[in-house]
Amino acid sequence: MLNSICLKVPKNLGEKVIFLAHKFELVNKKLCIKNQHSYLYVPLIRQPNEHELSQLKNVASEICLDVEAFVEKCSAGETLDNVLKKQLPDSLHSSIRAWHIFEIVFAKRFTLWSISG
After folding, report:
1. Which of 27, 84, 85, 113 lies 20 to 30 Å (CA to CA) from residue 77?
2. What are 69-92's pLDDT values in tens digits?
3. Are residues 61 and 13 in the same domain?
């Protein structure tokens, strides 16, 4: 988890505020938006300037700046195998990988046997 400056926005105004924050290129797209109670916490890549903040407050007067911990998004190009390799000890990762390969081979053989039988 990473700490980031964010906008605390009432849920009912979230869509409008997020749209405007995207327009100002404020939203940190590498972090997940948080949904807690009746608020959304939108992670930012920088603090909004006075003009941007006043425009955001025109849309939702209740918004405020805050600092929260956010979960990072996995990149679309990252495979489960790569994520596990980073998170697990080598011996455990190798065991899981070997088992997965065995399952794939077994499934293909079973499918071929079912078709030909």
Report:
1. 27
2. 999 886 666 676 777 777 778 877
3. yes
